[in-house]
Design a protein that fits this description.
By secondary structure, this protein is of the alpha/beta class. 41% of the residues lie in helices and 21% in strands.
Amino acid sequence: MRRPGSLRDVERRGPPDRYLPRVRKLLYTGKGGVGKTTTSAATAAWAVARARANGHKDFRALVASADAAHSLGDVLGRDRLGPVPVEVAPGLDAVEIDPRVELERRWGRIHGYLVSLLRHQGIEEMVADELALLPGAEEITTLLAARGMANEGAYDLIVVDCAPTGSALRLLTAPDVVRSAARWLLRLQRGVAAIATPLARNLVAIPLPEAAVFREAEHLLYSELDGLRSWLTESDAHVRLVATPERIAVEEALRAHTDLALFGLACDVVIANRVLPPDAAREPFFHDAARRQAETLDVLRDAVAPVPLLLAALGEDEVIGIEALTAHGAELFGVERPDAILCHQPGLRFEATARGARVHLPLPHVAPGDLDVVKLDAELLLRTPTRRRALPLPRHLASYELTRALLRDGELRVDLERQPGATR
């Protein structure tokens, strides 16, 4: 239930201190060690301080760690955080989500059945417990926990400190991955549906799942994953990329930018941490380093445009504790609200044409020779050098033929045309 007078009852668009009716969702990721946890905590701390300084005393934010390493407590200067949100400052809560706890709570029956199936094949219990995890299950449960906290209505802003880029992309694209695994379980249901369960157990050697397992799988496939996919692609949800001005970190950030676009996940800002201050260039020892950083930042800025690039200077000390995080957030975002939507870009869209339809999908930093596009029934199968996605098409386009796929100016355009004699 929403709190009376919540900031979400008014609009967040227009003037800088007006707010959206829904919870603002920000998810930070980047190469390990680039400072994404500090940036996540600083965003939440400065958002709360700024809102309250402008008279919005009931503004509340949650910063949630989805990184198995869990360094959020260290950044906040807390000895320990747990799987239940705790207040770390007025208006600011923090939590370190335990994916194993969430997995058992949400999909314990599915996991238990798969363990029994593997144990029947002679696999040791501890090994079976690991193998029985559905692909992306731990990532999914982490996001579902964050979504559940957002839906409770206690917060105006949710900031998720995701795992390093590779794991985070598995987390953010997991709804598409887990869906395939859940469908396998439902196909098994159809295979034994015609046989009464007690009779089937006498005829079939392997353990058969209880009806509750199928109910849980159906809930996962048709409710949880659809809801999570919608939650991640809402207009007030953005992934923010964090990098340092080093070639390897920048290349990983650009690959992540491509992967996010492929799965329809919006990015509204890129942040570069540990930038040498201008005075450093005058010191002989730092002169070459400052020059290389400036060149790298120019490459990054041009590559992600029109997404803005924000810079955080290398400080004299570590950023630890609420006061230091708030100051860091203020310096990073300047006049911008940290929870504002800092860049609007068009996402996936369908356009009617004289002969059929055209699909538009932003796909930055991909060379035409590195992209494969195939149509199979009512799906477009897209493959980049790092990811694959089956993009569902509207049902009426299932009979259309793919006639052209063109990659231009960071956008994929796919033409689908009606086949001769086909009805609309």
